[in-house]
């Protein structure tokens, strides 16, 4: 017993820090806010609501149509797994408006909310636990709407496709390091897609969620995390449906770039060929394209400064192993349509700048010209613009610039 007391008194002891963090989570507000009501956000909300003692959950909507859909669909999230429908309700919803002085929305879907079932005092309530699952290109705009309610002791968990998002958030939302919340990252491998009705989803493939708390200062040998991040980590790992596991920041980074490499093949190619994932397999011409793209991707990843000195990086991100990953995922999700293909089909922007675009930019940082990936990125952007303009002509609205 004395040994435990002694370790608690040692401020630099990792065990003592962990125990103090566990004790301090007792006073952390349990409410979890989820900004983004797509497939990932709703899967997380549904899974947390299924816990024996679920935390209070608030869904944050940023357009009027989404709120209207919520009420029309019975104020519940419906998830179908192995043919069995399970509906969860009891969520609170909240409007998030643009800060004063910002530009007006450029499309009907982005009209600021005019009603909410939350009280007016909610607007000033501090958010301690926030999960962000909006599209990568919407992250900055979405966070600007709630930044005034976030504190340095708050935690933000980013659960999105692509990379480079946190760098944008630091530059455009939280430029002062002293005022930044604690960041967390999540890499999700569950297969979830929308049904025909809003807030109805199909859990097509069980997967996992890899989580990590990102140190504020990467140079700290023994970083100290805010209690809210520990609470979020403990709460998410309680969910059997999510199968969430905590990782070190370095291990999570490797999972991130591994998933990014696979997405940088499947997403743009399925969008350009207008085909489901499985159609990329067993076609010699497509296989050659995949290898050319992976040659650049592999070289960039192995040259990243943040991965230097990490054991087995060269083996893990070898071209042949990455090709095996792509083939495995494409086969497992053969009938699925990638998110990039779905976005283009709907005339919406894609996340290609945070997938292929990120790899191209990081390649430039380390002196590697990713000519093939650069070409693919602009082919997707061109198709995105063409589809967006075509889609816009069918609506009584000005076509939105998708560039």
What's the shape? globular
In DSSP terms, counting alpha (H) and pi (I) runs of 4 or more, how many helices?
A: 14
Largest sheet: 8 strands, mixed
Order of helices and strands: HHEHEHEEEEHEHEEEEHEHHHHHHH
Strand order of the largest sheet: 5-2-1-6-7-8-11-12
Mean pLDDT: 86
Strand share of the residues? 15-25%
How much helix is in the residues? 40-55%
Distance separating the two termini: 63 Å
Rg of Cα set: 22 Å
Give structural notes:
With 403 residues, this protein is an alpha/beta fold. It is built from 14 helices and 12 strands. Strands 5-2-1-6-7-8-11-12 form an 8-stranded mixed β-sheet. The protein has a 4-stranded mixed β-sheet with strand order 4-3-10-9, with helices on one face. Strand 6, helix 5 and strand 7 form a beta-alpha-beta unit. The chain is globular and about 55 Å long. The chain starts with a helix and ends in an 11-residue tail after the last helix. The N terminus and C terminus are likely disordered.
What is the gist of this entry?
The protein has about 400 residues and is of the alpha/beta class. The protein has helices spanning about 1-10, 15-25, 40-50, 65-70, 140-145, 165-170, 225-235, 250-275, 285-305, 315, 320-330, 340-345, 355-365, 370-390; strands at about 30-35, 55-60, 75-80, 85-90, 90-95, 125-130, 150-160, 180-190, 190-195, 200-205, 210-215, 245. The chain has an 8-stranded mixed beta sheet with strand order 5-2-1-6-7-8-11-12. It has a 4-stranded mixed beta sheet with strand order 4-3-10-9, covered by helices on one side.
């Amino acid at each position: 017993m004395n040994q435990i007391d002694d370790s608690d008194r040692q401020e630099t002891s990792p065990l003592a820090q962990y125990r103090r963090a566990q004790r301090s989570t007792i006073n952390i507000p349990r409410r979890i806010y989820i900004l983004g009501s797509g497939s990932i956000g709703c899967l997380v909300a549904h899974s947390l609501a299924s816990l024996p003692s679920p935390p209070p959950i608030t869904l944050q909507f940023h357009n009027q149509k989404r709120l209207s859909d919520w009420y029309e669909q019975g104020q519940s999230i419906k998830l179908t797994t192995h043919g069995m429908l399970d509906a969860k309700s009891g969520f609170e919803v909240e409007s998030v408006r643009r800060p004063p002085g910002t530009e007006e929305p450029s499309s009907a879907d982005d009209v600021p909310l005019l009603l909410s079932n939350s009280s007016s005092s909610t607007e000033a309530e501090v958010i301690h636990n926030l999960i962000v699952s909006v599209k990568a290109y919407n992250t900055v705009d979405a966070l600007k709407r709630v930044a005034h309610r976030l504190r340095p002791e708050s935690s933000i968990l980013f659960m999105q496709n692509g990379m480079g998002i946190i760098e944008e958030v630091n530059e455009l939302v939280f430029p002062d390091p002293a005022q930044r919340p604690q960041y967390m990252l999540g890499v999700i491998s569950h297969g979830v897609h929308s049904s025909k009705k809003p807030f109805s989803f199909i859990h097509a493939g069980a997967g996992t969620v890899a989580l990590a708390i990102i140190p504020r200062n990467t140079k700290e040998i023994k970083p100290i995390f805010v209690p809210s991040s520990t609470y979020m980590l403990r709460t998410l790992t309680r969910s059997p449906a999510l199968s969430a596991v905590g990782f070190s920041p370095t291990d999570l980074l490797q999972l991130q770039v591994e998933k990014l490499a696979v997405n940088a093949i499947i997403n743009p190619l399925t969008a350009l060929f207008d085909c489901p994932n499985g159609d990329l397999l067993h076609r010699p011409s497509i296989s050659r394209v995949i290898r050319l793209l992976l040659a650049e991707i592999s070289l960039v990843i192995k040259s990243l400064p943040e991965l230097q000195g990490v054991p087995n990086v060269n083996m893990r991100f070898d071209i042949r192993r990455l090709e095996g990953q792509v083939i495995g995922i494409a086969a497992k999700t053969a009938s699925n349509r990638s998110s990039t293909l779905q976005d283009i089909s709907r005339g919406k922007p894609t996340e290609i700048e945070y997938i292929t675009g990120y790899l191209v930019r990081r390649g430039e940082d380390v002196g590697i010209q990713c000519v093939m990936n650069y070409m693919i990125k602009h082919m997707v952007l061109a198709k995105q613009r063409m589809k967006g303009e075509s889609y816009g002509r069918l609506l009584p609205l000005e076509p939105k610039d998708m560039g």
